[in-house]
Amino acid sequence: MADTKLAQRLAELLSMLNAGELLSPSHLSVYFNVSARTLRRDIYERLSFLDIQCTPTGEWFLERSSPSKLNHKAIALFAEKSGVRELFPFFTNELLD
Predict the structure, then answer these.
(1) pLDDT for residue 72
(2) Exposed site from 16, 28, 88, 95, fewest CB < 10 Å?
């Protein structure tokens, strides 16, 4: 159950970042019902392969010079590094379309 919640949270964070949203740690903490420390771990460890930046006010965003769409390689790396690869046994390029 905890692995599923982690995978869902990380997938939603990826979606938000890819959509160009500014992510507020305090709002996300309430939204996901996790601590700010957990969110920092998500951003700085589990999603460290992305070029996530921090504003002077502490909000996170995906650097615009990064590709606007996540590719298969980036998502596969995310799944492997976050330990949720087994939750996506049939992950293919078609899933990104």
Answers:
(1) 61
(2) 95
The C-alpha atoms of residue 19 and residue 36 are separated, in whole angstroms, by 22
pTM: 0.67
Average confidence (pLDDT) over 69-74? 60
Tell me if 88 sits within 8 A of 77, measured CB to CB: no
- What is the DSSP secondary structure assignment for residue 17, as one 8-state letter? H
**In terms of C-beta distances under 8 Å and separation of at least 24 residues, what long-range contacts does 52-59 make, across chains too?**
52/17, 55/22, 58/24, 58/25, 59/22, 59/23, 59/24, 59/25
pLDDT for residue 45 is more than 60: yes
Question: In sequence order, what are the beta bridge partners of 61?
Answer: 53
